[in-house]
Amino acid sequence: DTWPVARLLSPTHDVDLYVLAGAPGSSLAFGPGHVDGTALPGESGNAAVGGHRDTSFAFLEAVQLGEILEVETPRGERVR
Prior knowledge:
The chain has a six-stranded mixed β-sheet, with no helix packed on it. Helix 1 (about 25-30) links the parallel strand 2 and strand 3. About 5% of the residues lie in helices and about 30% in strands. By secondary structure, the chain is mostly beta strands. The model has no long low-confidence stretch (mean pLDDT about 95). The longest helix has 4 residues, at about 25-30.
């Protein structure tokens, strides 16, 4: 079982993904996952988020230098 810990948004590519707790294969089948042991998205420190390049993260191939990605925390705060 897993649960959302954040949202990952790319306004340029019309992407709005829930980031799930943990990054085992069973979670990544449903969307990107937060790697255990790293900072939570939007918190101080480095957060690691994994995802499949041919499904949830396929849009990354088209991301250009300087484009904005946003992370929304469980408290509703958006970080760029």
